[in-house]
């Protein structure tokens, strides 16, 4: 029987729980499903690394959700039906991971904090993402959403010791995790549910009949407060109990809330770090393509942890938020959050229909760049999945990172 600590040490547990994350969009129209298939076929024909990874994914004997293949539709998110798992040890393995993530001991939390600090240091060494690329005289602040346990906070504050930092994170009483980064005079920690920051997202009048009418937060950020670096690292957690209307929408609400809150308060030329999954998933492709219109975009996936997962980080620098394309995207994403939170089921679906792009045009303009920036992400996941202890036809017993 493996103890939980080695699982943490090898990078299998994270506070921002990916295991039950979906690839942003929880309602997919037929056109979106078709777009996803077109992207998959495009990549299979042109990128050997992606083709090899896709084959390994077919053979992974683990829970679909544990590898972030998507909750709603296995055919849609994977591009093919997922076959049944032959090795029952796979289910036991992933169940241990879930239990450890949901019930972390103080030692486990500390181990995870150290791991996220290593990821932050690796990201900084590879991309300089935490270094503000702005004149020192402006001294803009830093906003970190989904900040627990504080590894990225540590990296950001080390790179910018004179910057004020605001950290937003889900309260432990709601299923969140403790922030273990040291207290600092320049650090302000707010225990909030980012998706419920309606006042900061421009909604001041909450309908009295809304199921969460009394749960929305008052304004958390100061009027006119601006940031040079925004970290959007939040992900849904299983222990967070939410109202019925939010179930199936929460991942979308969270990512839209973070992106909108960040972009509305980002100074021109600022940087955003955004946690995403599967560069090839159509909803993810749309985000990368859209950001590329008004920012310099690169992708980062750590080698030190979470190598077998589909997660990665978009690092968007020199964001020109004042450009027309950025303003259009911001308005669109803000509407999606609004309809996910206040809209009817039909309004919710309509917001996604309005968000569709022409997949052929996107691939014609962005396909080669998507492959170029994603190869390293796919390569790292392929390398780690190939060592999985539950791959069909293999005898390997190496732990997944």
UniProtKB/TrEMBL annotation:
GO molecular function ontology, one term from the record: methyltransferase activity
GO BP annotations listed: methylation
Name the InterPro entries on file. RNA_MeTrfase_FtsJ_dom, SAM-dependent_MTases_sf
* Source taxon at top rank: Eukaryota
Q: Name one Pfam family in it.
A: FtsJ
SUPFAM superfamilies (UniProt xref): S-adenosyl-L-methionine-dependent methyltransferases (SSF53335)
Residue stretches making up the Ribosomal RNA methyltransferase FtsJ domain: 138-318
**Protein name per UniProt:** Ribosomal RNA methyltransferase FtsJ domain-containing protein
């Amino acid at each position: 029987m493996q103890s939980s600590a080695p699982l943490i040490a090898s990078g299998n547990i994270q506070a921002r729980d990916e295991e039950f994350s979906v690839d942003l969009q929880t309602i997919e129209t037929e056109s979106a499903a078709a777009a996803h298939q077109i992207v998959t076929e495009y990549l299979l024909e042109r990128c050997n690394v992606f083709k090899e990874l896709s084959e390994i994914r077919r053979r992974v004997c683990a829970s679909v959700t544990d590898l972030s293949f998507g909750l709603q539709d296995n055919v849609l998110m994977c591009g093919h039906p997922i076959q049944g798992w032959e090795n029952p040890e796979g289910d036991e393995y992933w169940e241990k991971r879930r239990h450890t993530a949901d019930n972390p001991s103080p030692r486990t939390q500390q181990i995870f904090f150290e791991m996220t600090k290593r990821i932050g240091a690796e990201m900084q060494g590879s991309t300089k993402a935490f270094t503000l690329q702005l004149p020192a005289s402006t001294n803009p602040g830093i906003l970190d959403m989904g900040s627990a346990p504080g590894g990225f906070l540590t990296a950001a504050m080390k790179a910018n010791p004179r910057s004020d930092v605001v950290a937003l994170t889900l309260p432990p009483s709601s299923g969140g995790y403790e922030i273990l980064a040291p207290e600092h005079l320049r650090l302000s920690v707010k225990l909030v549910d980012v998706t419920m920051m309606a006042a900061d997202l421009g909604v001041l009048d909450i309908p009295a009949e809304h199921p969460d009418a009394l749960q929305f937060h008052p304004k958390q950020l100061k009027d006119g407060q601006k940031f040079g670096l925004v970290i959007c690292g939040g992900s849904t957690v299983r222990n967070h109990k939410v109202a019925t209307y939010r179930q199936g929408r929460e991942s979308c609400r969270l990512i839209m809330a973070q992106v909108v809150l960040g972009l509305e308060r980002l100074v021109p030329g600022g940087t955003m770090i955004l946690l995403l999954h599967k560069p090839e998933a159509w909803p993810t492709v749309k985000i990368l393509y859209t950001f590329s219109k008004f920012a310099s975009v690169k992708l980062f996936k750590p080698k030190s942890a979470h190598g077998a997962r589909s997660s990665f980080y978009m690092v968007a620098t020199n964001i020109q938020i004042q450009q027309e394309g950025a303003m259009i995207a911001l308005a669109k994403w803000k509407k999606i959050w609004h309809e996910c939170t206040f809209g009817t089921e039909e309004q919710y679906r309509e917001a996604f229909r309005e968000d569709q792009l022409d997949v052929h045009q996107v691939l014609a303009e962005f396909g080669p760049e998507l492959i170029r920036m994603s190869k390293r992400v796919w390569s790292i996941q392929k390398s780690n999945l190939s060592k999985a202890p539950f791959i069909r036809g293999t005898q390997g017993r190496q732990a997944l990172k």
